[in-house]
Design brief:
- By secondary structure, the protein is an alpha+beta fold.
- The protein is 39% helix and 14% strand.
- A hairpin with a 5-residue loop joins β6 and β7.
- α13 packs antiparallel against α15 and α17 runs parallel beside α22.
- The N and C termini lie far apart (55 Å).
Length: 581
């Protein structure tokens, strides 16, 4: 069997009780046979995909990304390790709830900033150091378990940049380094932070303490021996080419962001985005994309350069939103607003996170927030389908697109209903819930209808049961006909239904496929399966909900003639809510 998960042992407490290699395999959701094959039989070049990407300041960065089922073990292990890592105030990289902006903010309004880069950060962390993490507190595993876990995490005796486990492992390895540098900085009245391999010191003193560094006659910074010794004693090497300092009257940077009175992005970064948008407008998306990757990419042309180009643009513009904090109605940013409008003029369907006061939402009847991140994509496509037919033409709704960093579920959406109803919303706001959890069905709808009014222009509702479904546990994908829902994409992947698998074995009833989570096959209704369906060779053949939604939105191949007829009751419900408000 491949990757059967026993939920009874899936607890963090049991993780510390592992004592054999078989324990490790079982805990991480696999079998000893499969784990041994991935660690000792499968050739290295089949375990990982190695490629390069451009660095921000020139040169290339080598990425070693797992491509076999070892990645599944690493993902599970990374989640577990994150729960054991005790956050340090000075660490901002690879820590839940912290980001690059927060790292830069602690150094705002400082007279002097010192930047230090650690050379070959991940490759410097070798197998022995990783094994040492698992031998030390809080784990204290025996030799067999520590070695096995280190083998899961390492490639060619080093920590690979691109593996899910590498970031959190690096933070464990750097615990002593962070403690020593934090203590060293505090002693000389400096602020210290680390974001992965980027170390920053800052101070409001007029001169740098000589115990930290000195400035030579040519204006070059020379780090003190004490500081160098702390870093070298922790088995890291300083990249002296990237050691620099800056004063208040010069441009100060922290992890690629400008810091002065507030955190900001570089002008060069914005100019690059504008150039990409201009090329798209002037030459068309396909030509602009091909030119971009020919000129700037260090690896082969993407399979779909137009989609990759657009994804890069959206990511960069959303990054500006994140840095400039434009989510508040009272705190919009003109640069982001203009970039947003230019992108939307080129592709009205582009999904960008948008502050509610941008793009003139005054003509919008309502804003809808869905429980699933892809639900809005489906509903946007469905509404366009009906409007093109002359139906629901006055139902001008904006379906909110969540930022990548936001985690959405029925609990957080219900909490949003409660908090947003505390003050009057400018636009009617409708929170749309799936109909698969009884508790939230009860909380999100009144007993006599599918919707509920919370006050102050806030509504919640649950998905109505489409006429072609005989079960009530509905999510957005169930509104498609089965022949459309199970369409195969260009890579021969598709959505699966739990009813296709044997509840006892997890085996597909007609194909040679195995379901990772056997418990999904025991579901009493046809649950949507968009991951964890494997061929005997370990290939995952399930189409993700995100790819399924985008295939429909873009009308790709078999998805060009999808029927949206069963979505009609959703828009009738929206119309009823807004007409009777």
């Amino acid at each position: 069997m491949f990757f059967m998960i026993d939920e009874k042992i899936d607890t963090y407490e049991n993780f510390l009780q592992l004592s054999t290699r078989a324990d490790v395999a079982t805990y991480l959701g696999g079998s000893l046979k499969n784990l041994s094959y991935n660690l000792y039989v499968l050739p290295l070049n089949e375990r990982y995909h190695i490629f390069s990407i451009p660095k921000r300041n020139g040169g290339v960065r080598t990425i070693t990304a797992p491509k076999s089922s070892i990645k599944l073990y690493q993902r599970k292990l990374a989640d577990i390790l994150s729960c054991f890592y005790k956050k340090k105030a000075c660490v901002y990289g690879y820590v839940n709830g912290r980001n690059i902006k927060q790292n830069a903010q602690v150094h705002c309004k400082k007279k002097i900033i010192i930047n230090i880069d650690l050379k070959d950060f991940f490759p410097t962390i070798n197998f022995g150091r990783v094994r040492g993490v698992f031998k030390s507190k809080p784990f204290e595993f025996n030799d067999i378990v520590a070695t096995t876990l280190a083998q899961i995490c390492c490639y060619d005796g080093k920590l690979p940049q691109g593996a899910p486990t590498s970031p959190i492992i690096s933070n464990f390895v750097c615990r002593t380094l962070d403690n020593q540098l934090q203590k060293f900085a505090s002693k000389y009245r400096l602020t210290y932070s680390r974001y992965a391999d980027d170390i920053t010191f800052s101070t409001n003193m007029n001169v740098i303490p000589e115990e930290i560094a000195t400035i030579d006659s040519e204006g070059k910074i020379i780090l003190s021996k004490d500081l160098e010794n702390i870093i070298s004693s922790n088995q890291f090497e300083i990249n002296y080419e990237k050691v620099r300092y800056s004063r208040k009257n010069n441009r100060q940077e922290v992890t690629g962001l400008i810091v002065s009175s507030k955190v900001n992005v570089k002008r060069k970064y914005i100019r690059q985005i504008r150039a990409m948008l201009h090329a798209w407008h002037k030459f068309g998306l396909q030509q602009a994309a091909v030119e971009h990757f020919n000129k700037y990419s260090v690896h082969k042309m993407p399979e779909y350069p137009d989609l990759a180009f657009k994804k890069i643009l959206i990511g960069r513009i959303n990054f500006i939103r994140q840095i400039k904090n434009t989510d508040s109605i009272d705190n919009q940013d003109r640069v982001y607003a203009n970039l947003y409008k230019r992108l939307k003029s080129l592709d009205p369907m582009a999904q960008l996170t948008m502050p509610t006061n941008i793009d003139n939402l005054d003509s919008c009847r309502a804003i809808v927030l869905c429980e699933g991140k892809t639900d809005g994509i489906h509903l946007t496509s469905a509404l366009k389908y009906f409007v093109d037919k002359g139906e629901f033409v006055d139902l001008n709704i904006y379906f909110y697109h969540y930022p990548d960093e936001v985690k959405v579920n029925n609990s957080t959406l219900l909490k949003y209903c409660e908090t947003s109803a505390m003050q009057l919303q400018k636009h009617p706001t409708i929170c749309l819930f799936d109909c698969d959890v009884a508790k939230y069905v009860k909380d999100a709808a009144d007993s006599e209808s599918l919707h509920k009014y919370w006050g102050n222009n806030v509504y919640s509702c649950i998905l109505p049961q489409p006429t072609h479904r005989e079960f009530k546990e509905i999510c957005i994908e169930h509104f498609y006909k089965n022949e459309d829902l199970l369409q195969v994409d260009a890579k021969n992947r598709r959505i699966y239904l739990s009813s296709e698998f044997d509840a006892k074995t997890g085996q597909h009833q007609t194909e040679d496929l195995l379901l990772r989570k056997r418990s999904d096959a025991e579901c009493k209704y046809p649950k949507i399966i968009d991951s964890g369906v494997f061929k005997p060779n370990g290939d995952n053949v399930a189409l993700s909900k995100n790819d399924f939604a985008n295939n429909i939105s873009k009308g790709r191949n078999n998805f060009a003639n999808i029927s949206f007829e069963y979505f009609r009751p959703i828009f009738e419900m929206f119309t009823q809510i807004l007409d009777n408000k």
